[in-house]
Design goal:
The complex is a heterodimer of chains A (about 475) and B (about 200). Helix content of chain A is about 70%, strand content about 0%. In chain B, helix 3 packs antiparallel against helix 4. Classes of the chains: A mainly alpha (about 475), B alpha+beta (about 200). The interface between A and B is large, with 72 and 68 residues.
């Protein structure tokens, strides 16, 4: 029996300290059950204030129209679609961690998957706002749904990548939510059974759906998680692929490239992991979860960041090469005159620095395990990834085929910026509520790996590790 | 739904739980269920439960989504409102792939989660009897059903010998009802009207 739980000593423990099952419950439930700290209130109030500013900005846009934004004749997509792609990209890490790493049997996902999935859901909610409000007449947003109507019935265009986006984003949101919540049910039951206050008994009682922990239910739960992971894996890749189709299927120099799908997916994972780092580094410190989100978890995520950052860098260089190799004048001009140089050249070089050059520092193990440096890098990467989308959108649009319509320098109005800040407000308001009222670490999953990968249980394997193969075989191999 | 009587044995380690499950079955005791704080791999086999066919249901939901998306879009573009878009074919299959895929995944995921909740009787405001509050914390709780042939003391002694850290008798409702965890009141019961 014990041998089945054996894991190589070369791997670092996933749970530090000598914990029992009860300690795990205590450690993760305590911050949920305690009163919110002063720091929590400060953060929460700032987030709500930002959210309210976003609401005011949207009010201006809805009442007076999209003219309140500085979009012009050629730059028809500006900050709004940049923000949309940026948030969708961030929303990719959660499902990657919970689905792809589950299929790859990566034990370290258990420490971070719950919060990363929550982050995914909030990021997708934020992302969805941008195309919806960009429609201008937002009260007609339901026109994107294919329903029998009195206009013919005139159906939506199923050939349009913009419609594929509607299906992709809403499916992604629904599936991520179901995946996240089905994993939460057992942990909500843990909180319900510990609850002392009346409201907590009510809230966690309703939220845990009457979970008992029956073996049959766990068996179905495992099957459900596995299949949902299997479904989410191609789904997560499809979503950013489809987002990239918004650009790649158009005939606009700088967008019309076949490498967009893999390039966007790598970029999404890159920025998503950076956002997970930003949140996790703060969460583990404030909620004292350093034993569960260990330095080795952080290092693993940094490895993903340096890998995907290099893929993204490779894609940038491929684009430049293909522009030159294509011998198409328009393509070459967009890359070599309007992106690298020109009035928006600064954003290209900012993107290059943040996404390609600085993440290479993560080849150093020392820096990968440095918390302050990781935090700084996680912010830098997300700035870089925002500028990547800005460069792709604006530098391809601001000079089109007709020089007479070339636009003046595009800079956003306060309401465009306000909308973006508002999405931060929405994101962090959700995250603060989540981190206060929900278990930020998957309690049941940590217990599941505890005896395999907990520090004290790994130490118990030391005498086994010291044995020679012959001794080991003599002790443990039995003729059946 | 019925109220039954149980002898409940609580274990604090999988190492004692597995032999206990095995010997209970050998002794012929009727294990009602084993409640665990996390999925214990192999426990379902040890208890003799059959494999779940939830994934088969998932497959059926998935192909339902696939066929719905494909047939609907084909019908719209060839029969209901054929449109000439630059002389392109009316049935552009490659352009249908993204939506077909998304609907496949959506139907499979939603269908499976609903089936899972239905089979396991999970929903908001569902209330059940719990044998031990620590079954979601650190105890593996095994209730053994009491029948008219059961010798209570024998079962208790058996569980204690098997390494249970806690053994007690409990009468419990085996089904579910609509209720809230902050009050014992059943939501569908009429309140007594007190008249002066």
């Amino acid at each position: 029996m014990s041998l089945l739980k054996y894991e190589s000593q070369v791997r670092e423990p996933l749970v530090d300290g000598s914990k029992t099952y009860h300690d795990v419950t205590e450690d993760i439930c305590k911050p949920v059950e305690a009163a919110p700290s002063r720091l929590w209130w400060i953060g929460f109030i700032i987030s709500v204030a930002l959210l309210l500013f976003g609401v005011v900005s949207l009010y201006e846009e809805v009442v007076y129209g999209t003219g309140m934004w500085n979009l012009n004749k050629t730059v028809g997509w500006g900050w709004d679609i940049t923000n949309f792609v940026w948030w969708v990209g961030i929303g990719h890490a959660g499902t990657l961690i919970s689905a792809i790493l589950l299929l790859f049997r990566q034990g370290w996902r258990t420490g971070v998957n719950r919060a990363a999935e929550a982050m995914t859901i909030f990021a997708v909610i934020c992302a969805g706002q941008f195309p919806i409000w960009h429609m201008g007449r937002v009260w007609m947003a339901f026109f994107v749904m294919p329903y029998p109507n009195t206009r013919g019935p005139l159906w939506v265009n199923f050939n349009s990548p913009l419609l594929w986006d509607v299906f992709a984003i809403s499916t992604y949101f629904t599936v991520s939510l179901l995946f996240w919540y089905s994993g939460l049910i057992p942990d909500m039951a843990t909180l319900r059974d510990r609850a002392k206050k009346k409201w907590a008994k009510l809230f966690y009682g309703v939220a845990s759906f009457g979970w008992t922990g029956s073996t049959k239910h766990w068996q179905r739960h495992e099957s459900l998680s596995l299949v949902l992971a299997g479904l989410s894996t191609p789904l997560v890749l499809s979503v950013h692929t489809i987002v990239s189709f918004d650009f790649a299927t158009s005939v606009i120099p700088g967008w019309h490239t076949t490498i967009f799908p893999p390039y966007f997916v790598a970029g999404a994972i890159f920025s998503g992991f950076a956002m997970v780092q930003t949140l996790m580094l703060v969460t583990r410190k404030v909620m004292h979860l350093e034993d569960y989100i260990t330095i080795s978890h952080i290092e693993n995520m940094n490895k993903v960041i340096v890998l995907t950052g290099s893929i993204v860098g490779c894609a940038y260089l491929t684009e430049l090469f293909m522009a030159w190799y294509s011998a198409v004048k328009y393509e070459q001009d967009v890359f070599f005159k309007y992106r690298i140089a020109g009035p928006y050249g600064w954003s290209y070089w900012l993107m290059m620095t943040c996404n390609v050059i600085t993440p290479q520092l993560f080849w150093s193990k020392k820096l990968r395990r440095n918390i302050a440096f990781t935090f700084l890098m996680s912010v830098v990467v997300n700035i870089g990834m925002w500028f990547e989308r800005f460069v792709i959108i604006v530098s391809s649009l601001y000079r089109d085929y007709l020089p007479s319509s070339w636009s003046v320098y595009y800079r956003p109005t306060i309401w465009e910026v306000g909308f973006y800040l508002g999405s931060f407000g929405l994101f962090f308001t959700c995250y603060f509520l989540f981190s206060k009222y929900f278990p930020v670490i998957a309690i049941a999953e940590i217990k599941h790996i505890l005896k395999k990968s907990g520090e004290s249980f790994k130490e118990a394997m030391d005498p086994l590790e010291a044995q020679t193969v012959e001794e080991f075989a003599h002790d443990h191999v039995h003729a059946h | 739904m019925s109220v039954k009587k149980f002898v409940v044995g609580c274990f604090d380690d999988e190492k004692t739980l597995f032999p206990a499950v095995k010997s209970s079955r050998k002794e012929g005791y009727k294990i009602h269920d084993v409640y665990t704080p996390f999925p214990v791999h192999g426990l379902d086999h040890a208890m003799g439960l059959r494999e779940t066919s939830l994934h088969t249901a998932g497959f059926i939901y998935a192909i339902t989504g696939t066929t719905t998306a494909l047939s609907f879009m084909s019908w719209v573009f060839t029969k209901d409102w054929p449109m000439n878009i630059g002389g392109k074919p009316h049935l552009p299959l490659p352009a249908f792939i993204p939506i077909i895929f998304e609907l496949t995944v959506l139907c499979a995921a939603v269908g499976m989660v609903l089936t899972f909740c239905y089979l396991s009787q999970l929903a908001p405001f569902v209330k059940k009897d719990h044998f031990h509050l620590r079954a979601t914390d650190d105890l593996f709780v095994m209730p053994i059903e009491v029948t008219e042939k059961t010798n209570l003391e024998e079962v208790k002694a058996f569980l204690q010998n098997a390494g249970a850290v806690e053994v007690f008798e409990k009468e419990a409702e085996t089904g579910w009802w609509v209720g809230r965890y902050d009050s014992d009141k059943k939501m569908f019961e009429k309140e007594e009207i007190v008249t002066a």
